[in-house]
Amino acid sequence: MNFEETYIKGTFLVTPQVFGDSRGYFCETFNQREFEKHICRVEFIQDNESQSSRGVLRGLHFQKGEYAQAKLVRVICGAVLDVAVDIRRDSPTFGKHFAVELSAENKRQLFIPRGMAHGFAVLRDNTVFAYKVDNIYSPANESGIRYDDPDLAIDWRLPRAELLLSEKDKRLEYFGNIF
């Protein structure tokens, strides 16, 4: 596995080594010992999976306080533009974001530490998105930032008219109103 820290401290691109032949392929998607050696000690407690059609935008979500979550995200089928926003007030990259395409073909994963907002835009139909989290979900401590916040200026790589958001995500606050 290759571990590459992004310009946002603690946020890593993880690229597994893929072994393929005429039968298909094999890759190791997570190895606790290697993860701890290259990134940090983390105890993932839950795996989640979602399926979405092209144009779905989920996020930008985060959990507050003691319910903050670190995530290791990847795509099993299809492709997404995955976005992590630094909401750690003491960070030199506070309010900045990192975006990367994750796909079934490139097998990349993104490790998102606690203190980040997260979202993704689905680039292909029938995309399956999977992720590990290191803390329980607390509805009372859930929050989020609007996907179209002008201060964040995220290019979601899809026409605005094609974006499909939940009613909850349409009502999220702007970055400046939260922080």
How far is the N terminus from the C terminus?
36 Å
Which CATH-level-2 architecture? Answer: Sandwich
Number of strands: 13
- Number of separate helices: 3
Structural class: mainly beta
At the first level of CATH, what is the class? Mainly Beta
As for the CATH topology, it is Jelly Rolls
Q: How large a portion of the residues is in β-strands, by DSSP E?
A: 35-45%
Task: Describe the protein.
It contains three helices and 13 strands, in the order ββββαβββββββββαα. 32% of the residues are buried. The longest helix has 7 residues, at 32-38. It has helices spanning 32-38, 167-170, 175-178; strands at residues 2-5, 12-15, 18-21, 24-27, 46-52, 57-63, 71-77, 79-86, 97-103, 109-112, 116-122, 127-133, 142-144. The strands form three sheets. Strands 1-2-10-7-12-5 form a six-stranded antiparallel sheet, with no helix packed on it. The protein has a single domain, classed as Jelly Rolls (Sandwich). It has 179 residues and is mainly β. The mean pLDDT is 97. A hairpin with a 6-residue loop joins β1 (2-5) and β2.
Short précis:
The protein has 179 residues and is mainly beta. It is 8% helix and 41% strand. It has a single domain (43-178), classed as Jelly Rolls (Sandwich), CATH 2.60.120.
Task: Map the helices and strands.
Blueprint: E1 2-5, E2 12-15, E3 18-21, E4 24-27, H1 32-38, E5 46-52, E6 57-63, E7 71-77, E8 79-86, E9 97-103, E10 109-112, E11 116-122, E12 127-133, E13 142-144, H2 167-170, H3 175-178
Antiparallel strand pairs: 1-2, 2-10, 3-4, 5-12, 6-11, 6-13, 7-10, 7-12, 8-9, 8-11
